[in-house]
Design goal:
eight-stranded parallel beta barrel, alpha/beta, binds manganese (II) ion, binds phosphoenolpyruvate, about 325 residues
Amino acid sequence: MSMFSIVTLREGANAERVRRSLAGLGLWVSALDARDGRPPQLLIHEHSALWDPDRLMAIEGVAAVARPDSPHPRLDSQPAVLEIAGHRVGRGEPLTWMAGPCSVESEARIDALAERLARWGVHFLRGGAYKPRTSPYAFSGHGREALRWMRQAADRHGLKVVTEAMDTEEVGVVAEVADIIQVGSRNMHNYSLLRAVGRAGRPVLLKRGMAATVEEWLLSAEHCLVAGASSVLLCERGIRGFDTSTRNVLDLGAVALLAHAHGLPVIVDPSHGTGRRDLVAPLARAAIAAGAAGILVETHDDPGGALSDGPQALPLDDLRELVAGAPGG
Ligand code: PEP
Ligand code: MN
């Protein structure tokens, strides 16, 4: 049933010699690009003859052979704890907090916010410079200027940056400033963007498409990794259901599945998940209980005056309380 399997090599192994030994067994093999901190790996393709882990393990230089039961082997072989710009996220690590406005609105505002967020224990400053808006008439972000404001604010106050690239043309400028490149829900199926973001070689925060199955989401993450992303963090942000009483249906079952059955770090975004600021804190706590490795929250110093997503923006005091009251806060 599998399409691929992965052979991990020992340190110092001669990858070309191992590849030839595998090819000699009738296996169709290609090398995976080297990644920082990861041992070299080879990929065995679908329809290869005589896949036999014991025979493969007997080849000199082979350290491990992943079972051929997954269509997203690179995601599966991602470590349970990711190190992103010196910050560790994943199993057994303290909760990761990502917070900021929906869109970066001004230099002074993002700087004042970053100062507070850093003081309250937030790790990543989030904020859109390029905003995917359902209406073509809605505010769509301050672009490059906003990227600069956000990077400067983050650096001044010791935060990391997560921000969205909406278009293949923006990937380069976003990659220059972002510690994590966000791919938004509306773009989870945009494979050319996933590839372009992957080619930047940076960590990716991949939001779940609002009508995507878990498996489609994981395969989109695999696209980023195949193209060269150093790691992918999955972000649950709610899916479309039949009930419109909340903006989306935050799928905490999927969070538990990924965290506990797949061993993957998941970030949960209760802001887009509910669309209502009064439900953000309870669902953040539920997400933590379900196994989230981190929480992403939209916040604003004047939620009523926000240029986008005001109704779901958490007032600053509420955010401070949420972070302080969470495990490890
Ligand atoms: C966002 O994070 O501001 C955003 C647009 O999210 P999503 O892609 O989940 O709608
Ligand atoms: Mn938003």
